[in-house]
Amino acid sequence: MQDNIVFTGMRPTGKLHLGHYLGVIENMVKLQSEYKCYFFIADWHALTTKYDKTENLRQDVIDVASDWLASGVDPEKATIYVQSLIPETAELHIYLSMITPQNWVERDPTLKDMAKILKTKEGIASQINYGLMGYPVLMTADILTFNADFVPVGIDQVAHVELTRDIARRFNNIYNTDFFKETQPLLNNCSLICGLDGNKMGKSFNNDIKIADTAEVTAKKIMSAITDRSRMRKDDPGHPDECEVAYKYWKIFGTKAEVETVRCECEKGLRGCADCKRQLGAKINEKFAEIRDRRKYYEAHPEVVEKILREGSEKARVEAQKVLKEVRNLVKMF
Length: 334
Ligand code: TRP
Prior knowledge:
The chain has 334 residues and is mainly alpha-helical. 56% of the residues lie in helices and 7% in strands. Strand 4, helix 9 (158-174) and strand 5 (184-187) form a beta-alpha-beta unit.
């Protein structure tokens, strides 16, 4: 167990899918035994784009936490918290916003994408709100509230961790200190699994399998997965390498021997796509059976999830207060 602090978070987007599981959550479960970990749910960040659609926000937070817990994120090992329960982060955000040059946030490459999403959703040329503009500074505040060493993120967020380092360095310079560490990103591999249509797996593309899906729903979804488009009859010889989804999933979820069998039988025309996908669905369901049982428990007991989040947030707050005490002191607050 190392002393280094690992810190990461997710926006509350509701029930998570297998892309999240393979690319992010499995990694969190591993890291929690190796480092001092903070995992948080970014409900303020949700407001940067969905400030006017908050009806499901609380449930979305519970859903993300339930998926984490069911997948093995352990509140005994990692500190799990909700962003808006740590007001220290909002305070730190103020200090950081004072020292962040405007053009540093304007440069943010994800800002344009987010503005585009807002535009298409609302059908109007939307303006960018102050909060959305400052989103990378808020993310910096999240990270520096715990003075983290490492931040696991997807490739799209690496620029933000670089900005975190720039802002930390600037703070250290201005206030003549070495208090803030130079945080490093740890790259998550978010493209491990494609969606059922062969594109990137995503909730909004309607091509995902949720961690919380039942075995029946999963089996049905897998039956819709794209295979080898050139194959007409089930005893035609198949081309696993041109199979757009099913064979790729086999390589993720099957054993080496199983993948070999699938390949041979497919190439010889001994394995129809429907049978192949029936087996594949069963395979995936087997892997997630235990996780889904636990997920059902949390679904039936949201008060347990809430309690874990509130207790984790209290624990996190104690650490956040230590950092903020020092920051206030450095900035010479009254
Ligand atoms: N911006 C991240 C996302 O959209 C979520 C996030 C917010 C985060 N603050 C963070 C991730 C701090 C890591 C560290 O996915």
